[in-house]
Specification:
Elements (H helix, E strand, L loop, with lengths): L1 E4 L14 E4 L2 E7 L14 H18 L7 E8 L5 H9 L9 E6 L9 E8 L1
Parallel strand pairs: 4-5
Antiparallel strand pairs: 1-2, 2-3, 3-6, 4-6
Protein name: Rid family detoxifying hydrolase
GO molecular function, one term: deaminase activity
Organism: Salinimicrobium profundisediminis
Amino acid sequence: MKTIIKTKDAPAPIGAYNQAVLSGNTLYISGQIAINPVNGELQQETIEEETEQVMRNLKAILTAAEMDFENVLKSSIFISDMNNFGRINAVYTKYFNEETAPARETVEVANLPKFVNVEISMIATK
């Protein structure tokens, strides 16, 4: 059985998917980009601001599922330019305890939705 997780504190899906799906104790969070859920606009002044908005969106979804970043088992980070990795990683790292951080991959891709610079998805468990 699956439970759809929805929150107004993260952007509404822009396609045929949900913000997250809970199956048993495992939460699958769809890739999040830097859309501000309040005004629907992309936050892209800097790569740091963009990454912060992505992480806030992920946090809102985790909270809606009664979880937090300590529950995250795996992150997938998609970036449009590997030269931004250090700056993205500096923001991402603030949200995790280094000793209990999740598994992760970071992949450079040709394009992302709305031509953003970073998209992150996560898998978490209770």
